Amino acid sequence: MRAISSMATRHVLADLAGAAASAGFPELHIESVGGVDAARRVADGEPFDLVFLAEDALDALAAAGHTDASTSTPLMRSHVAAAVPLATGERVGPREHVAFPDAMGMRAALQNASRIGYSTGPSGTALIRMIRNWGLTDEVGDRLVQARPGVPVARLLADGEVDLGFQQLSELVGQPGVAVLGILPPDCAIDTVFAGAVATTSTTRVSARGLLTFFASGVVAHVKAAHSFARP
């Protein structure tokens, strides 16, 4: 079977597919690209059995008839985190606490940063909306650096292109040259629910739906937790 996903879930989906194969499910080949590109390819009619994207992107595809809405299944929740470059290139993991004391602390960090990295995905869209709602667009707008499609914010940090970056925690954890400060505080948290659905182009819909059920089961909860994803 063939699937497409956004880059944010490529590692966890690879491990979920491996666990499914070990449990006797059909082998699943997953292509991971930028979320915008993935949605466009599905909308253009490229044949896939399964589609894994942010929940709102899947809803839009279902509304247009490209995925089967009845099969849409929330799989995992991703918290957006903040990170900074790590000069030594040493790998570090996320801290247990949040990155900033509160929303005011995050505002101050944005105002003090020289270059701010954000993604092309839902986390980036939410961050830009937050900056606009805070009235900071004019102040920090020329310091915002959007990662190129398919390029993680971690690479911008490691390459010195930005000094503060925001993306899903799963995309930042364990990346070389990156120090994860933690997730965003509750009063300005950005969370994304990633889901899966059977594509209307699938010729193996029963098997595809079975895989989705397995991916959503508690049997593989530890796989998601290992990649810093929470319950949906």
From TrEMBL:
GO terms for molecular function: molybdate ion binding. GO terms for biological process: molybdate ion transport. SUPFAM superfamilies: Periplasmic binding protein-like II. InterPro entries: ModA/WtpA. Transmembrane segments: none annotated. It comes from the Bacteria. PANTHER family: BLR4797 PROTEIN, MOLYBDATE-BINDING PERIPLASMIC PROTEIN. This is Substrate-binding domain-containing protein. It comes from Microbacterium allomyrinae.
